[in-house]
Amino acid sequence: MIKNIFSIAGTALNAQSIRMNTTASNLANAGTVSPTAEDAFRAKRPVFQALVDDADRNRGFDALGGVKVKEVIDDTKPIREVYDPGNPEANADGYVYLSNVNEVTEMVEMMAASRSFQNNVEVVTTARQLMMRTLDITKA
Q: Where are the domains of the chain?
């Protein structure tokens, strides 16, 4: 049972780490420009999937429960077109295409991922403390 708690919390820690890394990548690319809309950076979003099926055990997960990142998809928000003929990345018409990253949204994502990560660290810490207390009781 304790092993399940650690496995479930471990999957959540991994998923939230990927979420934070994805958000950091989005923030790093927020100011990029491109000469075409197709080449413009699009924010990335991880898609989580619950591990609730026995088939998940055969894919390397120890216990039922937990979460994994199923895939990382592009955000569907539109790319912004800006007239900036002096920009070296401008196309023949003088336009550049900005990423669809919204810094405020990314900061909210980062805070939510960080809090979720912290909560799962607390779960692991509490389970460990309970396990240690149980061992102390059995020694007495």
A: 2-139
Q: Calculate helix-pair angle for 103-139, 2-28, nearest 10 degrees.
A: 160
Closest CA to 45 of 18, 24, 17, 74: 74
Judge contact between 94 and 69, C-beta under 8 A.
no
What residues have CB less than 8 Å from 75, skipping those under 6 apart? 42, 43, 44, 45, 100, 101
Q: What is the pLDDT of residues 17-66, one digit of tens each?
A: 999 999 999 999 999 999 999 999 999 999 999 988 766 654 555 556 88
- Please say whether the beta carbons of 9 and 123 come within 8 A: yes
- Quote the CA–CA distance of 69 and 27 in Å, as a whole number: 20
Token representation of residue 101:
């990253």
pTM of the predicted protein model = 0.83
